[in-house]
Each structure stands twice: as C-alpha cells, then as structure tokens.
Amino acid sequence: MKEALYSVLRAPLVSEKTARAQETNQYVFEVALTATKADVKEAVEQLFNVKVEAVNVVNLKGKTKSFRQRAGTRGNKRKAYVRLGDGQSIDVMAKA
C-alpha cells in the first residue's frame, strides 16, 4: 500500500519560494504525471497524518536545451501545492 503512495508523491520541493509558502501552511511536492488532486490529497494525508484543505496541481513542460550541438528536451514534471489545516505541519527536511 505504501508503495502506491510513494509512487504518487515523488519528492518534496525545497527552495526559497517553497520556504515562503510553508509559512502560510502550504507545501510543494513533485508528483507523478498521472496523479490527480484526489490521489495527492490521499497520499499526503496517509503518509504524514495531517488534514489537507486544498490541492492545486501545475504541469511543467520540459525545457529544450542543447548538448554538444544537439537539441534535447528535459522531462516534463508535475508539482502539487498542498494546503494544510491550521496548526498542522510537515517536516520536509527530515531524513528518511
């Protein structure tokens, strides 16, 4: 069962922008390209034992880059912004 949850949530995204979002109880995760909002909500609630209020999902198109005079494309990504209820938090810096 946990394997399915980890296949939905790939990794937490940590940057200056996501650190500011955490101050408003919002966390950002890289998720599977096929994951829906309901999948993300269920995975976060079960893995971290928190109550999710809202999930927003963004598709990121892979950039075109050149490597040794050949055009290549980075892979597409999908990220989810998860807003938690008041008084709840996730420690995204914890070592697994």
Report on the structure:
The chain has 96 residues and is of the alpha+beta class. It is built from 3 helices and 6 strands; from the N terminus they run αβαβαββββ. The strands form 2 sheets. The protein has a 4-stranded antiparallel sheet, with helices on both faces. Helix 1 crosses helix 3. The model has no long low-confidence stretch (mean pLDDT 91).
What can be said about this structure in brief?
By secondary structure, the chain is α+β, with helices and mostly antiparallel strands. The chain has three helices and six strands, in the order αβαβαββββ.
Task: Reconstruct the topology from this structure.
Elements: H1 2-8, E1 9-12, H2 16-22, E2 26-31, H3 37-48, E3 52-60, E4 64-67, E5 70-73, E6 77-84
Antiparallel strand pairs: 1-2, 2-6, 3-6, 4-5
Helix pairs in contact: 1-3
What are the salient characteristics of this protein?
96 residues, alpha+beta, 27% helix
Query: What's the main sheet like?
Result: 4 strands, antiparallel
Regions with pLDDT < 50 over 5+ consecutive residues?
none
The structural class is alpha+beta
- Tell me the Rg in angstroms: 15 Å
Q: What is the string of SSEs from the N terminus onward?
A: HEHEHEEEE
The strand line-up of the biggest sheet is: 1-2-6-3
